[in-house]
Amino acid sequence: MIDILDRLGLSPISSGAWAGSELPATDDLISSINPSNGQVLGQVSMATEEQYEQVVRKAEEVQREWRMLPAPKRGEIIREIADAFRAKKEELGMLVSLEAGKIRAEGQGEVQETIDIADFSVGLSRQLYGLTMHSERPSHRMYEQWHPLGTIGVITAFNFPNAVWAWNAIIAAICGDAVVWKPSLKAMLVAVATHKIADDVLKKHGWSGLFGLVIGRDNTVGDRMIRDPRLPLISATGSTRMGRHVGAVVAQRLGRSLLELGGNNAMIVEKDANLDLAVRAILFAAVGTAGQRCTSLRRLIVHKDIVPQLLPRLQKAYAQVRVGDPLAAGTLMGPLIDAGAVASFEQAIATAVADGGTILAGGHRKEGNFVEPTLILARPDMHIVKEETFAPILYVLPYGTLDEAIAIQNGVPQGLSSAIFTDSFRAAETFLSHNGSDCGIANVNIGTSGAEIGGAFGGEKETGGGRESGSDSWKAYMRRQTCTLNWGSSLPLAQGITFDI
Ligand code: NAD
To answer: Dmax of the chain from CA atoms?
Structure first.
């Protein structure tokens, strides 16, 4: 372990406050715990309010210069940041596995996502396009342009401790913004390592401090951040409970928020689905990351005629899932993040059973934070089915008609990711129509998790409505300005109004 920290340039005790460079560590230390074995991986000191001030002031100072650097020049620096993450992919991915419990392939995959978004952003730096409009007035030109917003506050969840920072920070930097990041206290070392990799590149070019890091408690640093009028945008990823609070506080000061909150994702399996594909997709989406992705599959809506075929195949596949050390070869599922997550897993199963659910596979805690991937035959009206439990529990919900299936799919408060497995063109298009899925992500013959960075990522309803990553998500990090220029020698007014003396 010390070896991984060493390779990433981290000491056993890190400061939680980085204004580019590391600020002095305080005495208020919190340990980072490996969820697989309870061992302490390292310690981080909690940022104080004064340190928070230092980080924000530094970010603001750097941003005033950075915003004047042409965007393609910013892109050249981001290209080097992409290469720096490439060079550290193996060790950073391993740290993700050690601290967040992801299996090796998923830890590496998370860092790859950061590299991908940085590569994408290099091209984006030449594509921050505005529209031109035809003015109704003669000899007038009208267009819109995009300016940087300023310094952005980014709050991240434990389950993507590296990539969610990148979705926000790298795009924001291309847009000319600075970023102050408050990561989860459950994945602090990945945050420090991520920050260091990016800041080492920035330092080389004289831009250290463009990315700031504050690791601290929600009631000191977190609350200060969301109330801070110097941060025009707060991008927050986490539970719906957190989003409700953050959204309300930011709205109160008329700031902008970009919310990426909980999901309760479903897959519809039609009668004509290719079950070989469906079983593999279900397994990865429901069991991958131990069910701790916002896009994890939580509800399987299966046509009643194929329930007898599909369930035995799933039960067999579930029995073969190897649960254990995330870095061991052959492991498909690591631990839950902590004892609280295990308690939520056990409580959800007990509630489902008490409400008439039948356990078809798993259902138990193994040891420590390891649990069995679990399948439960349930009903869509069960209260627990409408909640997001951040664990590998999949509720199987039989249906009769496609309309009924879509109603079940949409009948929850969350609206992140959805999928249908079918070989019917009509069923697929119905699912994608205005009468179909109400989610931000809708897939055909692909599972609910594992989105590509090129698309806009996010969801509707209680998922918060935010969009991050690809497509035109960059617009959230900029302010739009409409400009009208008169190059004639008279002053015509819009709407034909005359106002002559
Ligand atoms: P969480 O809500 O407990 O914490 C998320 C972040 O919010 C942490 O950094 C936490 O410290 C911070 N926070 C909490 N209260 C705050 C406050 N009052 N002020 C400022 N910051 C505050 O979530 P978690 O357990 O870390 O992550 C799991 C949740 O995140 C799940 O619900 C999952 O669906 C969601 N998630 C959503 C997406 C998405 O893109 N939609 C992605 C990843 C995770």
So the answer is: 86
